[in-house]
Amino acid sequence: MDVMRLLSQPLQIGRELATKKVVKQFVRKFGLVYFGSVNQREDEHELIRGITVSASHVDTHFCVGDYKGHDISLVERRNTLNFPDQASKQYHWLIMQVDLKREGLPHVFIDGNHHDEAFYTTLFMKFANMTNANTLFLQDNPLFARTFKVFTPADKFDELEIMLSGDIAAMLAHHFKQFDYEIDDDRVLIYAENPVVTAHLLHEMLRVGQWLAKELDKAETELEIAR
């Protein structure tokens, strides 16, 4: 019998109940709808996808709604990655998705140096065309280039420079470096890696998500002109 596992169960249950309480308070405050656990293969709802999606992940505390004109959704996601000759790795994210009012943005992942090599191995297996784009920001936004690793297909570098303007890069680096970000077509995802779920965390994710969505909606207009 795994004694450590048995001893940790009350703590895990307590954390789960605390997370559920915080998320439900957030849901009530902002008028969202709470669904709890969801099955990615069977559920009728349009679930959160993104780079962390896999056949084995488990989603809980799923909720959806609208905030200041943008559709939003939230989920707590856990996954275990297995590699030959290595111990398995467990990952835990809180993810908020904000839908944009436009579409056609390039696929970009902005990592605040929160992930390990195992995560990147999986990322590049699924998205082989992703390329490190930090050189684009070294001169004009050195703090952003130090704070984040930015990945997008090499043929999207020109669009990335327009989309992540100096003001956006500076704001993320100075005020929101605790999160990771994914932009893809008509949505932006905000990731809190291995989080303790608190009301402050949820409010900060909502704040940066709503701000970034507005900025990206404007950036798409500039991209259309450039194209």
Q: What value does the average pLDDT take?
A: 87
Strand order of the largest sheet: 1-2-3-4-9-8-5-7-6
Number of domains: 1
Straight-line distance between termini: 62 Å
**Strand/helix succession:** HEEEEEHEHEHHEEH
Specify the overall morphology: globular
What does this structure look like?
This protein is an alpha+beta fold and 227 residues long. It has one domain. The chain is built from 6 helices and 9 strands; from the N terminus they run αβββββαβαβααββα. The protein has helices at residues 3-30, 117-126, 142-147, 157-163, 166-175, 199-226, and strands at residues 33-38, 58-67, 70-81, 89-99, 105-111, 130-132, 149-153, 180-185, 187-193. It has a 9-stranded antiparallel beta sheet. It is globular and about 50 Å long. The termini are far apart. The model is unreliable at 3-8 (pLDDT under 50).
